[in-house]
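ok trying again, last paste got cut off:
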Amino acid sequence: MRSENIRVNELYKMLRDFYITCFPQRISDNIDMTVNYKRMLIEYLNGEFFDAEIKAVDGIYKITGDIVQVYKESNPPEGSTAYLIAKLSEDGELKKLLDNGVKDLEDFDFWLNMEGYVENGVASEKLITQKEWFN
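nice, full thing came through this time. structure:
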């Protein structure tokens, strides 16, 4: 995995939610999923961040919110949401996370297809019934 701050079970949840939301529609092989992967990541992270939000500002994604500066100054413990928000507010860190996260989602999506969790662009029964990734 390229992403330090995203776990496999989170990738699984994002992709599972995506395919179930689209079910029974088929996701075409010709569609460029990069935009969807980035949207999945941003929506997931925004759901995890209570007082901050990832938004496009002048064409660049940034973490916004009044609490961001407070987190940066408070030196929160590593592994906490506050730490992640403070870290991602540094120059280039959010872009790095999004770029690496998109690649990780792409690789994991490919693996889900190879293992039969997704069949011909549609969520299989295996994906629908398995709610959590193995820990």
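cool. The chain has a mean pLDDT of 87. The chain has one domain: 8-129.
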